[in-house]
Amino acid sequence: MKSLLGILNNTRVRSIGYQIITFALVILFFGFIINNASSNLIEQGIASGFGFLNSTTGFDIASSLIHYDSSSTYLQLFKAALLNTLIVSFISIIFATIIGFFVGIIRLSKHPIASRIATTYVETLRNIPLLLQVFFWYFAVLQPLPSPRASINFFDFIFLNNRGLHLPSPELSGQIGLFLLLLAGAALLILYWYRQAKKYRISKGHNHKKTWWYWRLMPLLCVIITIYSTTNIEISWSLPALAGFNFEGGGVITPEFFALFIALSTYTGAYIAENVRSGIQSIDKGQIEAARAIGLSPFNIMRFIIIPNAMRVIIPPLTNQYLTLTKNSSLAAAIAYPDIVLVFAGTALNQTGQAVEILFMVMMVYLFISLVIALLMNIYNKRFLLVER
Amino acid sequence: MKTPFIHNKNRYQQLYKALFGSTINTVLTIISLYFLYLTIPPIINWTIIEANWLGSNASDCTNDGACWVYISVWWQQLLFGQYPSEQIWRLVLCSGLFIVLLIALIFHKHLCTPLQKRLLLISTLFYPVIAFALMYGGFLGLPIVETRFWGGLFLTLVIAVVGIVTSFPLGLLLALGRQSTLKIIRLFCIGFIELWRGVPLITVLFMASVMFPLFMPQGVNVDSLLRVLVGVSLFAAAYMAEIIRGGLQAIPKGQYEAAKATGLSYWQSMFIIILPQAITLVIPGIVSAFISLIKETTLVYIIGMFDFLGIVQFTASNSEWIRYTKEGYIFVGLIFWVICYSLSRYSRTLEKKPSH
Predict the structure, then answer these.
(1) Is the pLDDT confidence value at A189 over 90?
(2) Region A15-35: what's the mean pLDDT?
(3) CA gyration radius for chain A?
(4) Does residue A205 share a domain with residue A153?
(5) Which of A117, A334, A363 sits opposite B203 (nearest CB)?
(6) By the CB < 8 Å criterion, does B118 face chain A?
């Protein structure tokens, strides 16, 4: 009896015991819900599994970058919706970063009016729910725009109405392959030239001055190649024109996309501005004074001292903001932008009833996107890490 | 630090230098003044000068400006949703009690004797029960108000407060589990936290409304508000766990070792030594988690609940008022802004002064 108590008091035995109990409880819990779910599904007559992905959907979605219509399969729907999510997130991330850096730097400037405008912007947008901002842009700003017949007309080829912003879209014809090849060649040349110039500057301590023809010729060559390459293709513009009740031809930015995009980028921009501000403020004043003392120009201080130092502080929270933005793009569901949550976790789920599979896929998509962004930002972060000797 | 050159100038010279001292500053001044000229007068004009203040329906809004009649017509819905008007005193009583309790909690260090502190603790613990009883009813002759009638700002606050309060103990356990030396427990906690943090709240809400019923035994119906509350709590718990973990990691290792050396058990050392210090450190973080949660509860509209923002969408289905949703958004946005901004200021003052 005493030895049994002794065993029970042994820390190792106890810790293993706790773990077994936890494990068993988790297994029991999952067993319970899986059991319930399967019996419920049988009751409702829904076959579980991913077979539904190959059946046709029978409904259309508002906008898609790849071919999709009502005779497409659920798998194609998944791809189209995923692409819509990615595109709105990607474009919003770019603009949010631009807005964030711009506002963050303005907010730190000593200019009394500009810095106060930036502060007001940040404090207003950060403290209002994003969904409200999405609704505001969509229902209060974009929907009251005139109907297609009374569109706001910019120079006869851009039209703004409550169906979206209609723009001319380029249609490329001719030797596109050659064009891309030449363009890539020019880009490689520029990269090579830049590397060489940098190498020279680092090894000699000053820019190359004497053999001007080499340092001027390379960029000139690149420019010539680029210009020449554009002559190989013809661009014809497809112009939007009113046909019946709506516009035809050209490209259209739908109000759903635009509302989501502008809300996401301004809202996240306010958060990024705060990150940028704290990143710049974290720089030791001595660094800037030292840079000034060795005679760097204000631009070069920004370029070589402030930005590399601040980036080290900014990147981790910036990564978080990108992740949050991507997750927030799911608010699309509220204004009918056909993203993965609206058409896949919404419409497709209602049509098929495959709640478990569909929500599993959607959650995996978001987890995967989070993982990829985190990975990319980690790689980028390595470039800015302090290299200590 | 001495900055003698600036001290020699008077304020106007300083201001002049800031506004027109260099080319960049001059350009900034011109651009920002032009921006203010473009935005401020129309806003003042729309919200105040041209606005319609009096009336009882949409046709009273004849001016071009804002139609504030919207708010005088809909304020009750916006605040309390479809809650029966003759029962609203119950919600007012609840929020009154809540405010009194909150003030007492914030200032308890200055006000209370030990006995009063104990009373305060007891009333804090019992408040949720009393509040729920008052809101739901069904005792002392109070009629039952089902949760589908709950709405407006009231519902938003219920979800946010319940979410943050229940997520605290859950998050605490998860944070401890993530720091634990027991591998399986740590693994489960990491998995749970990363899963919930990786997905948007809206998918969690979809899960709560679509998958939750599937997971229940047949014939068991769980109230839709309760399902949302469970989803929100689990979601918030994952974030809370990471905040608390930050606090746990900020405690010097010596504290853990000292607690062990004095012979305290794991739970004793946690509750007596580590957590009191860690929690004090992370209170600002918890306040900002609360702010995010308040803002994110607006998503419940997407799964068909009429919270504060949802009511504005609801009024838009009324053809008479569809033109005036802008006023609704501004009103709701203003209230959210006041709540969130004051909370964030409060957390900033907490950050500035170390409380011990």
Answers:
(1) no
(2) 86
(3) 28
(4) no
(5) A363
(6) no
CB contact at 8 A, A84 and A64: yes
CB contact under 8 A, B25 and A111: yes
Which residues does chain B have within 8 Å of residue A363's beta carbon, measured at their own beta carbons? Answer: 195, 198-199, 203
A21 and chain B in contact, CB less than 8 A: no
pTM: 0.84
Q: Is residue A261 within a helix (H) or strand (E), and if so which, with residue range? A: helix A255-281
Judged by CB atoms closer than 8 Å, whether chains meet at A40 and B301 is answered as: no
CA distance A354 to A57: 13
**In angstroms, rounded to a whole number, what is the distance separating the alpha carbons of residues A333 and A345?**
9
What residue ranges of chain B have pLDDT lower than 50? 1-2, 355-356
Domains and CATH numbers, chain B: 4-49 (no CATH), 69-83+145-352 (1.10.3720.10)
Domain stops at, among A238, A255, A290: A238
Residue among B204, B267, B196 nearest B237 (CA): B196
pLDDT of residue B1: 47
Which residue of chain B has the CA closest to A362?
B203
> Same domain for A266 and A369?
yes
In angstroms, the CA A239 to CA A166 distance is 9
Write down the residue that tokens 């972060």 correspond to.
A381
Whether A149 and A242 have beta carbons less than 8 Å apart is answered as: yes
The residue type of A255 is P
Q: Which of B20, B187, B203 to mutate to test the interface with A (most CBs of A within 10 A)?
A: B203
A13: left (phi over 0), alpha (psi -120 to 50) or beta: alpha
